[in-house]
Amino acid sequence: MRDTQRRFGRRLVVFASLALVVLAAGAALVLVQGIDRQIGDVLHTYEVRNHAHELTISLSEAESSERSYLLTSDKRYLEPYRRAVASIDMRLLSLTAATRDDGAQAAAVRAIADEIAGKTAKMARTIELVDANRETEARMLIQDRTGERAVDSLRITLEQFIGEENGKLLDRNRQINQSRRWLVGAIIVALAGAVLLAYMLISRTQRQFSALARSKEQLATENEVLEAHVAERTQALEEAREHAERERQRVEALLQDANHRIGNSLATVSSLLGLQLLRTKSDEVRVALEAARSRVHSVASAHRRLRLGDDLETASADEFLDAVLEDIGATASDADNIELVGQFDPIVVGARDATTVGILVGELVTNAIKHAFPAGRGGTVTVALKRDDSGVPRLSVADDGVGIAGEPGEGGLGSVIVRQLANQLGGEPHYERRDGGGLSVSLSLPGIEGAASPDAG
Hints:
Layout: H1 2-72, H2 78-98, H3 103-131, H4 135-144, H5 150-279, H6 283-304, E1 314-316, H7 317-331, E2 338-344, E3 348-350, H8 351-372, E4 379-387, E5 393-399, H9 413-424, E6 430-433, E7 439-444
Parallel strand pairs: 2-4
Antiparallel strand pairs: 1-3, 4-5, 5-7, 6-7
Helix pairs in contact: 1-2, 1-3, 1-5, 2-3, 3-4, 3-5, 5-6, 6-8, 7-8, 8-9
């Protein structure tokens, strides 16, 4: 029961302190708003006075330029006259906008605008008479206006409503000053009460610190026991992690060895086909065996050069395909005068599809070397794997050779293989003759595993 009463009393003190702080903050906010309003009123009065003063200056300049033009007929005075008239219109609009929210001032400005309109009309009439060589009528019109005091009348009117605005501002400032005194007093009282309550709360809290210190000592003892258990558990987890890492490295080595063995086996098959090629006498059989040997070698190269990433499920296309091109350039019999150029983005390719991409590259590059550069002709074969504008990987193989006579992509076994492999990866090969000779083959590969991942490339 006593603990409940203590908790209730502590909460009451906290709530009271918060209430006093909120009261002080509210009073300060009201005080700041009053100051903001006062500053706004001062700025508004200054703006009205400034617009009125500039309007008077512009009107005086217009009248002075008009009279100078009448007396001298010098057209150089027309330009300052026109600028002054344009400035009158602009200053009048600014003054109207500044007094829009005050009905009395708006009415006074409308009266001033009517008076200015009449005066500017008479000045414009004077200018027209001088332009028409009717200086006598213009001078008579000026003499008729001699007794007028439009500028003085305007200045008096503006000073009157500026004076009224200043009076309102003074009244408002007196009210704000009075409110400020009350609000400052309220802030001081609220802060003093909050400080007193905070002191009471701190005193009570200090009495509880001793009890918390004793509890802390007990917790420290228990914590030491828990830390010993955690250390043992951490050591066991570290040993398990090291064992898992060793197993991962072993599996990685086995996978790499398996790929290498598959590549070596296929290379052996390629060598056997090469031996059979030397023994046959039929040209048709020799062509078939040479094509088969080349394709088996492409598959072998793809397997030997495949290097999986840390996840053992993906490979980087740039490293993998660079190695495949290097193998093709080193083993192709007709590639001595042909330069193989690779342009590959670091696209992550699934391990299952990496070999397929390597076979595709081998098939397309081998066809280009075989058909585009006859009779030992030199040239360049460019292989690229990059993402297109929509983020889909696109493989392209382009040569600058002699081109092809028939319809590209039809009739040959190589074209059939390329089309089937492309379909496995969701693409379709597109053949295009290049300007100046050569052939370009491109195909999108949306089905490459991992290529659609935003972090893959």
